[in-house]
Amino acid sequence: MFVATLVLSALLAFVFGAGAVGKLTRMRSQVETAAKLRISWRRYRLIALPEGAAAVGLLVGLVLAALGVAAAVGLVALMAGAVAFRVRAHDGLGFILGDTVLMGVALLDAALRAITA
User: Fold this and answer.
1) Domain coverage including residue 30
2) Does the pTM exceed 0.90?
């Protein structure tokens, strides 16, 4: 089961690390998403902090299990907020489902990391 944890943690770290970099470098797609969700760029850009912290926490969490669980649980909370904002903005179903799937993967990763500790 640790191999599954490793794969999920690496996948999530890549996705959220890339998201953090996109926000910090002001990628056009990130700016457009902020506008679509009606969040000021200044506030939206701050999401890079928990995304980057989670990416690092997931990777370090492969050695320190408690940190990995905490990082994954933090991503579940972050993605719950993302889904709520997408629903509020009447965003497309694909985006809502995509964020919901990421939330589920983070939840599964947290459970697997706790089990394999």
Assistant:
1) 2-115
2) yes
